Amino acid sequence: MHTSTAVDLAARAGGVVRRTHLLRHGATDADVRRWVRGEVFTRLRDGVLALPDADPLIVVAARHGGSLACASALRAHGIWLWDDAARVHVWLGTSGRRHDHPGCRCVSHNDAGGTAFGIVSLVQALVQVAGCLGDEVFFAAFESAWRKGLLDTARRAEVRAGLRAGQRRLVDLARPDADSGLESILRLRLSRLGIRLQSQVRIAGVGVVDFVLDGWIILETDGRENHDGSSLRHKDLRRDALAAAQGFTTLRFDYAMVLYEWDLVEAAVLARRRGRPA
Ligand SMILES: [Zn+2]
Ligand SMILES: [Zn+2]
Fold this sequence. Notes:
Elements (H helix, E strand, L loop, with lengths): L2 H9 L4 E3 H6 L4 H9 L4 E4 L2 E3 L5 H9 L2 E2 L1 H7 L12 E3 L15 E3 L12 H12 L1 H13 L5 H10 L5 H6 L7 H12 L5 E6 L3 E7 L3 E6 L7 H16 L3 E6 H6 L1 H13 L4
Parallel strand pairs: 5-6, 9-10
Antiparallel strand pairs: 1-3, 2-3, 4-5, 7-8, 8-9
Helix pairs in contact: 5-6, 6-7, 6-8, 7-10
The protein binds zinc ion (2 copies).
The site of one zinc ion has 7 residues, from helix 5, strand 6 and helix 6.
């Protein structure tokens, strides 16, 4: 077999391939030995080979015995994720076996299917996240994927069907226009209090605000990366004044408050609601 054919076969699965897969496609034992000697492939363990430039996370997953899954797969798909990235999530399939490897802190997944290397599909990764990391992480990731144009109607239905019954309402609540994971989390948490928000509302003279509640309370979430610097602060203050001139009141919450000080956010929203002007 030509070296380039073997490299192509491996590249299709993120740079990791089984020796038996190469043999099935016409490589010989001598070919494989030659490629390992010539450093075309490195041996991850018996019978599993990787290209030297394979994605390091795909390599960790392969060492563990499967493919990059769940939160780790969503990150690889470019999806916003509210979860620390320290652990690698690996799909082993129904009958796959977990392999020991140095520094393993992986989270194993055993949902149905055969083992493979590479990265699981977006749909499968979303369903795994819902089961592994819960409603909020799933919801924000789902909206992030939809916003990026990665979830058409068929895929959304597929994700919904893969969730357990109690989580399907999350798909029904999701929208394609959440600007950030923070907005997703805020909307989901307020919905649990029975509060429905209007999203991405255009207010004449002000612009588009994240949310309007009860027709007069503006809720804005400030992502860490977008609101640094005094000129942006000036813009925000000006927006708030323009909105106030039209009878709106604005509450702003940043990343740390929404994610880690929710009690304060909730108290502020509820108190402001009760204080509706006559
Ligand atoms: Zn997981
Ligand atoms: Zn591991």
